[in-house]
Structures are given as C-alpha cells and as structure tokens.
C-alpha cells in the first residue's frame, strides 16, 4: 500500500467565512496555519487542517474604523477568544468515498478548546505531486461557546439576532511531502 503525505501550502490556500444575521450577512477570510492530507493508494484517508484564528479578516465592512472595531469583537471572548485560542483544528477521522474525486470527511472540530464531531463533502483533485481540496463546512457556533446574540440564549433580540450557523469555504492546495511503502 502506497502512503503519501500532502502538506498544506498555506500561501496557496484560503478559507472564506460567512456569518448571517437577520438583517444580512458578513463575510471574510481566515488563514490556514498548516495541516496535511494522507493518501493511501490514491485515496484520501486522513489528515488535519489547522486554522489561524488570529488572521481573521472582514471583507464586507469597508469603513476602516468600523472594520477594526468588528475585527476586535470577533477576536474577543464574545466570539473566538483568539488570544487564548490562536488556532482551531479539524482532524479527519473517517472518509467515505462518494465518487473518484468527492469524499465525505468526518472528524473532530476543535474551536476554543471545545471539540465536537463535524463532517462535510469535499472535492479533491489529485495530481500525484499535489492536490486541490474544496469543501464547505457549516458550523453551529453555539456548540463552541460562541453565544453572542444567539436566539438560543437571549430573548427579544429582534433584528440584532445572529444566526447560529456559520460557513467555512475551504480552497486548499497541498503538495507531496514524502512517499513510501507501509507494511500491513
């Protein structure tokens, strides 16, 4: 069985986030610190994605002062507590092949040192020395102690309510780090 480890190329990878509220949505980007995908016999079999929460950016708020204030709020304990928790991690525990290039990945997502199972469908294109990976993970933020303006925890929020689910759209490039034979 041939095993190949593909290391994520952070500079060629991105994560776009979207959070919705009653009156609209906000979106931005967040960086990937590092990670890898393990392939056995040409099929994804495991790995992890380490997200750099300190790199969160807001794209839809163009006023510099408002953007800075909003970014500070996302960094605070109301949201991601980035000073205490500078990374979030998705560890792939199981993989189901849907087609030759589509997989359903299940694993543990850890945000703010709180871990829950999560899963999502991903499109993976494998070119022997590199792969491209794209998928969308939908997360219920309240499971990770991000309760600010959640209707589950606060009443009478009206049009200030923020929906619990947010999305992470992954577009990742990874390159083969080494290959070798493993023995069964």
Automatic annotation (TrEMBL):
It comes from the Bacteria. It holds the Pfam family YceI. Residues 5-175 form the Lipid/polyisoprenoid-binding YceI-like domain. InterPro entries: Lipid/polyisoprenoid-bd_YceI, TTHA0802/YceI-like_sf. PANTHER family: PROTEIN YCEI (PTHR34406). This is Lipid-binding protein.
